[in-house]
Each structure stands twice: as structure tokens, then as C-alpha cells.
């Protein structure tokens, strides 16, 4: 991944949020506003109940995008490493690539409301539970810590053999999955701190994990260039998704559970969860166009950095970030660009919320709140 070039106009972390105009497709008119990968996991004996509850509470799917806006929010002095947005979409947790602690910030006041300290090395990822009571963080110190969001107190520490790269909560907030450098995904009981399932079928380190909205499966993305979808009750593989040529950098489910979104540097892929087939494949040039030449030489290599399914009922759309400093909203079926945001540097942190919000963090520490309506 290639970081963005220096920009003397980059926003400092202490600057006030300012509204920006946004580039859109010809279909829409918008003004310059709002992350989260919604994750779900179920107790072995409550999957059916959770699936029904999820259907009752889930946002309406295929919601059309009528308005899109964004603004800058409180960021960091160096590259943004992770962002997690609370289910209410009122608060968000974030840290930089140099932080061993993580802060909770409020969107309305654009200021810090809590700090979580306890790791002995830099934090890599974070996830806030669906009930909003807990947060999990993973770190280079080979642990995953469970926190009380209100008190900021450390509740449990889950030790691993190697660096813990990613984590996700289940829908009832009672289970938590971690992805580790030892190539193992582990499903944990958050009440007892015990390991429930160990998934060992990847041949590379685990980069990202996501729960299916019905709680029945976890999708794990790996440096082995595969996505594996496995049962949260048995730990058995449902199917393996192949087709990426490089390390898979992200994975997420659409909120209706019908599609999985993933990307490596060269391709964005959309997969059907019904049969595991790829329904869309987008190369950077398909969206960005040909790279401009530099003084007669071949232009810089174009690449994707991260992707995620759009928030809430916007199941027709995918968010994808490129190393050209843009975040794009593309149509999941056609690949057409519906909206775009130009950032101060390349984006290496991207997440979608439960309703209408998403957030991005760039290489310079700037953060952007995206709002889909």
C-alpha cells in the first residue's frame, strides 16, 4: 500500500470540523457529513431466535442514496489506525498507529469523552458491542482487551500466542471473535473469558473478520489470499472464496446478509452468500481511470486500500478507498460511482455504521465523517 504524498493543506488534529462539498454522480445533488462493520455472532442454542430478532430490527434493504455529505472530525497527529462507531452513532473510538491507548469521542461536541489505557504496545483494531456497553481492542502486545465503555475500565484480557490483528462482537454482545498472526480465528465467551471455537484452516495471518447478520457464520480474510466462511456453532467451513491475487485487506457483510465485500490492492470483489460466487469485480482503473503519466514515465501504481459494505439499509452500495486519496461510493451491482470524497491523504482506515454513517481516517491523521441519506 502506498501512502499519500505530503500535503501542506492537511488538517491538523486540533482544527475544527469543517463542511466540505462532495463529488457525486450525475444522479445526485449533495453538500459536504458521517462507521462500523456491524457484526453478529450467536450462542449455539439461540441462533434461530437471534435470526428472527435480527430480521425484526434490521434496516430496510435496498435503500436508495438520495443525499451524501461529509465533514472532518477530531483526528490524530499521525496515521489513523482504527475507528469503531457506537451503535447509536453518537460516539466513536479511534487511535493512531502510534497509540497504546484509544479514545472515545463524541460526534456532536467533536471532543474526547473517555480514554482506555491498559495495552503495553500499539493498538491495531477496535470493535464496540451492539448493545454499546463494551469495547474490544487488539494489540501488538498479543492481547485482546474487553472494556466497559461507560467506566473505561478493563474487564477481561484475552491472551494470544502472537499479535492480535482484528476482532468483532456478536449480535448479543456475548461472543467475540479475534483474528491472530498465528493464522487462527478464535471465538470467545465475553462473560467468562473462555475460548469457544478455534478455527485453524487458514494458511496465512488473519487480516479481518466479520459476522453474518444472522449470527450463523464468520467470514475471515487472510494473507493466504482466501476468504473462509465458517459456522459459529460447529467451526466447520461452509465455503472458501478464492479469486484474490494478493493479501485480502478487508471483509464485511451487507446488512441484509446477502453479500460479502472484500478487497486486495488490485481488486474489489462482491460475493453472493447464497452460493459463494463473485458478482462484481472492480480494478482501480475501472473507477479511477488510467493513471496519469509523470514526465513521460508510467504513472504511479493505482491500488485499493480498504473497503466495506455501506451502512444500514444502503445495501446497494459499497465504500472503497484508493491510494489516490479518494473514497468512492459505488453501486454493488454495476460498479458505477455514485459519490466520492477527496481526502488529504490516502485512506487506510474505513468503517461503516449501523444506520447512515461511515468514517474514514487517512495517512496524515485526518478523519472524515460520511453521511448517507
Automatic annotation (TrEMBL):
Pfam families: WD40. Keywords: Repeat, Ribonucleoprotein, Ribosomal protein, WD repeat. WD repeats lie at residues 116-157, 157-198, 199-240. The keyword GTP-binding does not apply. One of its GO terms (cellular component) is ribosome. Residues 1-24 are annotated as: Disordered. InterPro entries: WD40/YVTN_repeat-like_dom_sf (IPR015943), WD40_PAC1 (IPR020472), WD40_repeat_CS (IPR019775), WD40_repeat_dom_sf (IPR036322), WD40_rpt (IPR001680). CDD domains: WD40. The keyword Ribonucleoprotein applies. This is Uncharacterized protein. It comes from Strigomonas culicis.
Amino acid at each position: 500500500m502506498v501512502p499519500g504524498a505530503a500535503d501542506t493543506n492537511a488538517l491538523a488534529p486540533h482544527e475544527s470540523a469543517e463542511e466540505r462539498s462532495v463529488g457525486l454522480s450525475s444522479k445526485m445533488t449533495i453538500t459536504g457529513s458521517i462507521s462500523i462493520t456491524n457484526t453478529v455472532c450467536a450462542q449455539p442454542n439461540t441462533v434461530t431466535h437471534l435470526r428472527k430478532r435480527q430480521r425484526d430490527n434490521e434496516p430496510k434493504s435496498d435503500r436508495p442514496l438520495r443525499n451524501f455529505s461529509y465533514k472532518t472530525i477530531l483526528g490524530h497527529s499521525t496515521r489513523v489506525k482504527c475507528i469503531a462507531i457506537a451503535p447509536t452513532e453518537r460516539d466513536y473510538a479511534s487511535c493512531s498507529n502510534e497509540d497504546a491507548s484509544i479514545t472515545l469521542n463524541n460526534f456532536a461536541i467533536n471532543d474526547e469523552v473517555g480514554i482506555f489505557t491498559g495495552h503495553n504496545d500499539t493498538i491495531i483494531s477496535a470493535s464496540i458491542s451492539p448493545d454499546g456497553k463494551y469495547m474490544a481492542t487488539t494489540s501488538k502486545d498479543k492481547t485482546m482487551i474487553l472494556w466497559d465503555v461507560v467506566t473505561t475500565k478493563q474487564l477481561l484480557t484475552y491472551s494470544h500466542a502472537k499479535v492480535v490483528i482484528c476482532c468483532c462482537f456478536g449480535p448479543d454482545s456475548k461472543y467475540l471473535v479475534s483474528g491472530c498472526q498465528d493464522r487462527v480465528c478464535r471465538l470467545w465467551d465475553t462473560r467468562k473469558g473462555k475460548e469457544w471455537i478455534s478455527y485453524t484452516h487458514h494458511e496465512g495471518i488473519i487480516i479481518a473478520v466479520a459476522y453474518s447478520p444472522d449470527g450463523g457464520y464468520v467470514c475471515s480474510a487472510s494473507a493466504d489470499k482466501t476468504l473462509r466462511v465458517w459456522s459459529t456453532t460447529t467451526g466447520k467451513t461452509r465455503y472458501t472464496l478464492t479469486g484474490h491475487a494478493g493479501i485480502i485487506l478487508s471483509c464485511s457483510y451487507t446488512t441484509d446478509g446477502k453479500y460479502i465485500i472484500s478487497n486486495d490492492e488490485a481488486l474489489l470483489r462482491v460475493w453472493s452468500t447464497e452460493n459463494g460466487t463473485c458478482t462484481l469485480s472492480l480494478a482501480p482503473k475501472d473507477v479511477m481511470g488510467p493513471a496519469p503519466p509523470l514526465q513521460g514515465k508510467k504513472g504511479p501504481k493505482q491500488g485499493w486500500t480498504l473497503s466495506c459494505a455501506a451502512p444500514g439499509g444502503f445495501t446497494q452500495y459499497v465504500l472503497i478507498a484508493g491510494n489516490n486519496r479518494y473514497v468512492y461510493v459505488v453501486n454493488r451491482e454495476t460498479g458505477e460511482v455514485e459519490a466520492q470524497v477527496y481526502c488529504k491523504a490516502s485512506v487506510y482506515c474505513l468503517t461503516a455504521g449501523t444506520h447512515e454513517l461511515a468514517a474514514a481516517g487517512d495517512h496524515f491523521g485526518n478523519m472524515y465523517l460520511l453521511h448517507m441519506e
